Amino acid sequence: MIGAALIVVGLLAVWEVYVDVSQINSLILPAPHAIGQALWDDRGLLWSNLVVTAGEIVVGLTVALATGLVLAIALHRFRTVRGSVYPLLVSSQTVPIPVIAPLLVFWLGFGLAPKVFIIALVCFFPVVVPTLDALDAVDVEQLKLMGTLGASSLQIFRWVEAPAALPGLFTGGRLAVAVAAIAAYLAEISGATHGLGVVVQQSQYDTARAYAAVVVLSLISLALFGLLSLIERRFVPWSRRVRHA
């Protein structure tokens, strides 16, 4: 943590000096001190929109985690359809969000639903891949042993496959958090009246405020990343052993 803080301070110092020396227009690149001032001066505006965007991200991530887990289990269990379905999942990630966003707004309105759909669409694939890999990596001998002991398919999943899948699920969740903020921004600029994405879009002549909104958006991702890591350490302690094996 100390090392990361020192790196951030160093980068901010270089940034501040560059803006001062280069005399670059503040509409193109505001100085860090101006962004910090905007964080304080516009704290009320940023907070109210943070609540909106954070809610969208949390719900979207929850849907992505649930959908990704179900899809990973289905692809693992039904290998005959895996070859045809998996490429479709990959293709779903190549669809530009700005292209489908107006259609989603038309279908679902300007409420929470289209934002959640877009965030879940962007985030579910990073969940599917590591979860599926974790399921595929289950020790075959362990599965044979459970079968020899007369365990049912459901019992094998409960005691062997599910615990093996959880580290992959949390890894995917952390990867999804990294792109969830981008997805929320794209969702909001495509049709919303509130949210940090809207603040950024409306601050084209106040770049310091726009950067301040981006800082808050990044802090949401960092907080969720840390929260997922804490939950994993608390409820999936064997994941650390898997990671260091």
Molecular structure report:
- α3 packs antiparallel against α4 and α8 (153-189) runs antiparallel to α10.
- 84% of the residues lie in helices and 0% in strands.
- It is elongated.
- It has a single domain, classed as MetI-like fold (Orthogonal Bundle).
- It has 245 residues and is mostly helical.
What are the main properties of this structure?
245 residues; MetI-like fold; mainly alpha
Topology order in helix (H) and strand (E) letters: HHHHHHHHHHH
The amount of helix comes to over 70%
By CATH reckoning, the class would read: Mainly Alpha
- Strands, total number: 0
Task: Based on the coordinates given, report the CATH architecture.
Answer: Orthogonal Bundle
What oligomerization state is this entry in? Answer: single chain
CATH topology: MetI-like fold
- In the CATH hierarchy, what is the superfamily? MetI-like
Category from helices, strands and their pairing: mainly alpha
**Terminal-residue CA separation:** 25 Å
Overall mean pLDDT: 88
Strand coverage percent = under 5%
Shape: elongated
Report the total helices.
Answer: 11
How is the main sheet built?
none
* Low-confidence regions: none
Question: Short description, anyone?
Answer:
With 245 residues, this protein is mostly helical. Helices cover 84% and strands 0% of the residues.
Q: Topology of this structure?
A:
Blueprint: H1 2-22, H2 32-41, H3 43-77, H4 79-92, H5 97-108, H6 112-136, H7 140-148, H8 153-189, H9 196-202, H10 207-235, H11 238-244
Helix pairs in contact: 2-10, 3-4, 3-6, 3-8, 3-9, 3-10, 5-6, 6-8, 8-9, 8-10, 9-10
